[in-house]
């Protein structure tokens, strides 16, 4: 399939034989002078590896398209499909890597790529996530033309050629997602402040706010904690917990193969309140830029909860990608332990933010995170599937740097709606 444009370039599906040209385009765009690594200022260095592209195009995990002129690739764009729960109706996609050869910019190439990619995934997607730079207006302006709405702001998101740059996050909803959306739940007061701004832009209603009782983030005794635990599934029974049981958190597991077996299918991907997505992660086997870590909660030899963290040491950002627990009541304690452990592991200021996505209908978890210093930075309306309905989600961010106002002040080029969302996020960071 290909689409011809008036500017004498065509847009078509990427093919394995395009791998060298696509990787070369990313290198050309993001090469850092006098650097040992061309991926030093780009969060996904694998895009600069022709072999990675060739394998990826064969597997078709992504949908990649390219713009071609005079037989050469002059632009490319991709989307990671179906990053939600396996077998569910989440139907979430994450756009990435919109890049155009410098000589072909401002000639409609980026607009053509965005239009074609949105058209190709429209029928299979309910929510599309897009991240745009704030130091350059091109990306978010193209997204805005195709129905994307600002849903949040990420301070200290990525290290770029402009320094540690904040990012604007945009979202696009299908009509079906809006139709099936439920707001029959409450959110924290802080979450509602951001939700009001975002929901207004989508012309949809906002959930009510209520300060719920938080999950504990510390505990004095196992007996005290045991009394508040609630199974996430009837098969998980706490009657065998002794008053003085051997309760511990292990944080030295660094390989998925070392994980004990756990009834993950019964816990589900989102049932602990943390939204578990297959987000795009940076990969660079030739450097120590990325690491992952697992945190496990045990009662004796029984695994009660597990969290997975991906850490980008150059971007100085850690993302809690998943947290699954057999019992409600453990989430706050595990997250508090993760935060403390990551702080202790920090070297040379290589951790400045910790982020995670949580369900909007878990207001107790919202309050727990806010007690730990997290604040809402992105609001995702009608994000994940729950039975026949869809519910919202929110990203929380913890900032470890003392003064981040300069990162908000450095933002340029945004329109009134984008600035309104950004200012709302900024006002909640304290």
Strand order of the largest sheet: 1-2-3-4-5-6-8-7
For the record, what CATH class of the largest domain applies? Answer: Alpha Beta
Instruction: Estimate the global geometry from the Cα principal axes.
Output: globular
| Count of individual helical segments | 12
CATH names the topology of the largest domain as: Aminopeptidase
Low-confidence stretches: none
**Secondary structure category:** alpha+beta
Cα radius of gyration in angstroms: 22 Å
CATH 4th-level superfamily of the largest domain: Gcn5-related N-acetyltransferase (GNAT)
Give the biggest beta sheet.
8 strands, mixed
Helix content: 25-40%
As a percent range, the share of strand residues is 25-35%
CATH architecture grouping of the largest domain: 3-Layer(aba) Sandwich
Distance between the termini: 50 Å
Could you tell me the number of beta strands?
Answer: 19
Average the pLDDT over all residues and give the rounded result.
88
How many domain modules? 2
């Amino acid at each position: 399939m290909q689409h011809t444009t008036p500017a004498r370039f065509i847009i078509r599906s990427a093919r394995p034989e395009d791998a060298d040209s696509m990787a070369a385009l990313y290198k050309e765009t993001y090469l850092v002078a006098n650097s040992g690594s061309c991926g030093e200022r780009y969060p996904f260095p694998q895009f600069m590896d022709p072999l990675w592209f060739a394998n990826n195009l064969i597997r078709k995990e992504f949908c990649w398209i390219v713009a071609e002129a005079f037989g050469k690739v002059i632009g490319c764009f991709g989307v990671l499909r179906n990053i939600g729960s396996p077998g569910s109706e989440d139907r979430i996609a994450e756009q990435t890597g919109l890049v155009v050869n410098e000589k072909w910019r401002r000639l409609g190439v980026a607009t053509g790529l965005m239009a074609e990619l949105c058209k190709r995934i429209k029928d299979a997607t309910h929510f599309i996530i897009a991240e745009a730079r704030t130091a350059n207006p091109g990306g978010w302006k193209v997204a805005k033309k195709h129905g994307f709405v600002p849903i949040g702001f990420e301070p200290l998101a990525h290290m770029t050629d402009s320094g540690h740059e904040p990012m604007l996050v945009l979202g696009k909803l299908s009509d079906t997602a809006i139709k099936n959306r439920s707001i029959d739940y409450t959110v924290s007061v802080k979450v509602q402040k951001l939700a009001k701004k975002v929901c207004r832009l989508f012309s949809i209603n906002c959930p009510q706010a209520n300060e719920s009782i938080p999950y504990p983030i510390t505990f004095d005794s196992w007996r005290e904690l045991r009394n508040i635990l609630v199974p996430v599934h009837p098969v998980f029974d706490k009657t065998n917990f002794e008053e003085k049981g051997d309760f511990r958190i292990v944080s030295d597991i660094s390989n998925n193969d070392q994980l004990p077996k756990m009834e993950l299918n019964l816990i589900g991907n989102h049932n602990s309140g943390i939204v578990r997505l297959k987000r795009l992660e940076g990969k660079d086997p030739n450097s120590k830029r990325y690491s992952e870590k697992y945190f496990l909660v045990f009662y004796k030899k029984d695994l009660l909860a597990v969290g997975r963290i991906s850490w980008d040491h150059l971007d100085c950002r850690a993302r809690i990608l998943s947290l699954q627990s057999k019992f409600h009541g453990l989430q706050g304690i595990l997250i508090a332990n993760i935060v403390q452990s990551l702080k202790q592991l920090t070297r040379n200021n290589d951790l400045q933010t910790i982020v995670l996505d949580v369900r909007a209908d878990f207001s107790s978890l919202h309050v727990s995170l806010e007690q730990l210093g997290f604040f809402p930075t992105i609001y995702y309306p009608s994000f994940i599937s729950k039975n026949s309905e869809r519910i919202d989600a929110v990203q929380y961010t913890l900032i470890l740097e003392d003064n981040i106002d300069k990162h908000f002040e450095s933002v340029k080029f945004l329109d009134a709606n984008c600035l309104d969302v950004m200012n709302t996020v900024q006002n909640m960071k304290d």
